[in-house]
Amino acid sequence: MSEMTYEPLMVEPAGVPRGRAMVERADWAARAYAKYDVATVNRIVDAAASALAARAQEFARDAVAETGFGVAEHKLLKNVACSTGIVDAYRGQDFVSPEIDEVNKIVAIPRPAGVVLALTPSTNPVATVSFKIILALMTRNAIIISPHPMAKKVCVAAAKAMAEAAVAAGAPDGIIQIVEDPSIPLINALMTDERTDVIVATGGSPVVRSAYRSGNPAIGVGPGNVPVLVDSTADIQKTAARIIESKAFDNSILCTNESVVIAEEAIADKLLLAFAREGAYVLKDEERDAIRSTVFPEGHFNIKMVGKDAVWIAEQAGIKVPAKTRALVAPFELVVPEEPFAHEKLCPVLGFVRVPTAERGIDIARAILRITGAGHSAAIHSANPELIMKFSAAVPVLRVSVNVGNSLGASGIQTNLPPTMTIGTGFAGRSSVGENLQPKHLLNYTRLAYNSDVREVMPTFAGLNPWTAPSGPVPAYPTASNDRNNAQVPAPIHREPISQDVAELRDEIRKLIVEELHALIKN
Amino acid sequence: MTQEQVAAPEFDYGLFSYDSKEQMLDKSKEFWNPGKTQFWIDSGVPLVIDRREEYFIYDMSGKRLIDAHLNGGTYNLGHRNPEVVQAVTMAMQHFDIGNHHFPSLARTALAEALIKTAPAGLSKVIYGSGGGEAIDIALKTARHATQKRKIVSIIKAYHGHTGLAVGTGDDRFSKLFLSDRPEEFPHVPFNDLEAMEDALRGRDVAAVIMETIPATYGFPLPNPGYLEAVKLLCEKYDALYIADEVQTGLMRTGELWGITKHGITPDILVTGKGISGGLYPIAAVLATEKAAGWLNEDGFGHISTFGGAELGCIAALKTLEICSREETRSMVHYIADYVGMRLAEVQATYPDWFIGIRQNGVILGLEFAHPQGAKYVMRHLYENGVWAIFSTLDPRVLQYKPGILLKPEVAEEMLDRTELAIGKAYAEIRNERRSA
């Protein structure tokens, strides 16, 4: 019987070759797009952003439905911020035209990376997809998105909407592509493909580390674990409102949501009361222990808790809290690795530690970041510039949100940092980028540099621009060369796609054989 | 002992070996085809293809060539395309050629896939082992359906060398074997609708057979509206329209089947060459229900042991799937656009020499101002690392057929080499003229 079974050889999974085809197509698209002028690029960026923004609500709802976590109204906010919001933030900036520095006799010509491979997370699915697409389009790159499998449906819908709008506005065909069925072998193949020019990885550490191991240039960012210091000079009312609003944002699934509040003893009780007024529930000791073992059974984070709301989480621990509770505050004493509350939580549970002095608070913030989250972000609420400076210098993060919620502060939405969905964690966070990811990270510049000798004069380059607007669809439809004046693009013939992959045929055959065998045995 | 060891042959291929390229060529003449072997030596293209991968072929000497002919599209997907190799290798664990007497797993699967991607109306698939046999099947099918005998083709047509197919083509290949049958196979001038109507008017024609772009004739393009009008004439005079898509199918025009760009649903469509993936010979005839009546009347009417060999079906299934991808279609449009643009630039440099570019997608005929112009260009291309062939039936024209999965950097290199070769061929011809 065994010789009748169809034993396939060890082969690549079916999706891998298709992924390579996407990279090849992107390669062509990138080459074409790299010659576009700034006016056309702006039109394409606007079209893609508007297409996403127009359906921001639908995508927000669908993302929550598909992944089972987060808050639709907060995702709506991020979807808008990461589409038209990003475009508005960079309005007037030009990542396309040559920049002339007459004093130094240098002209810098923007040179796109080429093919950008973007890995996007489940926690922030559509916003990250949109953000990376907009950045790629602004800088004339082609982009291939590999969405997190938990959020693939909504990401595919969002990316396709943006791709259609971009192409309709004149972008090259295939400038935005998305993997519909992501798998580990496929992602590996995309990451290691030599035609992938840069990988922009947002997601868990394994994804980021493998991006760096791929052999291709990569921008990956590490995890967060945000300490928040509140000292006695802080405006407690405002601080409480900001922290709870930020902690509750999208049910705390962002890497920028606050992890542990470090309160100076003098104002700690007052702060807890203010938290309660803002809709947080301060857990009593036994309640805190119940939450600890529910959210971190056996000391490990329970992924069922990701992005769930505070009331639901309390319920799981057998705790009844007011229906409008937005966050659960868990006071604890010692910031050490074996204390689960000192780790990143990805749900609206907020650690709370008292310190005798603000100075001591700095040490505690460092202790939190020793566990995880170095290079990412921290927050401080204080009116004391000296302390703020000391805190920021001592704590190994690359952005400190001051008197603002960290969720939207570190990501530049409520601060004047570059608005981003990808927080560079720098050397401390094992990343090549320390800033918030922004358009310039997807660009190089060719610098033409004149002889510095004053006798060698640089002529004027003003008005010289190597880029042009395309004269029609890119690429042109391949009309016969003797019929070009009369060109009519036929409607593509839409018939059932072939799904008859060899793999499927194999399954069919296997089924047939099994049926045959059954028949034989019965007879 | 070491001193006595016989030196290993330089070219060892396992089952056979050669001491040198010269020895190989001598044996080729002795045991295989002296005429053909000598022809290429005399043409300055002493190519014996050894290693091959992607769009590169390597002569025994190690010389690398970019393949811009692809054996008429056989290597559409490149040489030894890894996906097709994998599919066939895998299939060999279970399948062989199969048995033509019985319903077959792979034949049925491929037939379904072909019909799903074909112009609407085509509903049955009949297999051959190669393009010529498939053409014969198509002609026999048309004769059965119409109960008429005549087949109209164009002058300088080329549809293969088998019994019936050879009759549709140029005399050169039929008279040699006393196989010309002008009374059954009238030939009419290409792009001449009046002549076509004259040939059909007697209502005694079973079918008109047309390559969507005649390859061996140097890809003269059908005038806008010509094929559409021929199809209408076929309908008017009860003849079938057979689309020979052997060289124009499988995305080469930027659509899976070139004929769909004309909005024509043929009664019969023939595919070959590229459908094999370049790995296992297979060809297929797609027919409408009406045309394919003999399959009901006598299903054993055409028998072919190797026709639709199951390993070939696997190669074809994979090939068809690759060709049908959205990404592939997009790439063909990019390649066509880029190659066309670069060649137009070369043409602007040599307007008196490089006088025409016939292009539909990645099917190109390059016209030169000399009766044998393409032979000169072919030789200089060869010297400069590109393989493309002159058109047998119009040697002014070079057949230039880049791959549908060509990478941008290879496309650039191919055009750089082509530009140089066209210039060198021009210089050679000018020198000949000067010294004449």
Automatic annotation (TrEMBL), chain A:
MF terms in GO: oxidoreductase activity, acting on the aldehyde or oxo group of donors, NAD or NADP as acceptor
Cited Pfam families: Aldedh
Residue intervals of the Aldehyde dehydrogenase domain: 20-408
SUPFAM superfamilies membership: ALDH-like
PANTHER family linked to this entry: ALDEHYDE DEHYDROGENASE-RELATED
Protein name per UniProt: Unannotated protein
Membrane spanning stretches: none
InterPro entries: Ald_DH/histidinol_DH, Ald_DH_C, Ald_DH_N, Aldehyde_DH_dom
TrEMBL record, chain B:
Keyword field: Aminotransferase, Pyridoxal phosphate, Transferase
One Pfam family it belongs to: Aminotran_3
InterPro entries associated with the record: Aminotrans_3, Aminotrans_3_PPA_site, Class-III_PLP-dep_AT, PyrdxlP-dep_Trfase, PyrdxlP-dep_Trfase_major, PyrdxlP-dep_Trfase_small
Keyword Acetylation: no
Annotated TM spans: none
CDD domains per the UniProt record, alphabetical: OAT_like
Cofactors demanded by this protein: pyridoxal 5'-phosphate
GO MF assignments: identical protein binding; pyridoxal phosphate binding; transaminase activity
Designated name of the protein: Unannotated protein
Record organism: freshwater metagenome
Source organism phylogeny: unclassified sequences, metagenomes, ecological metagenomes
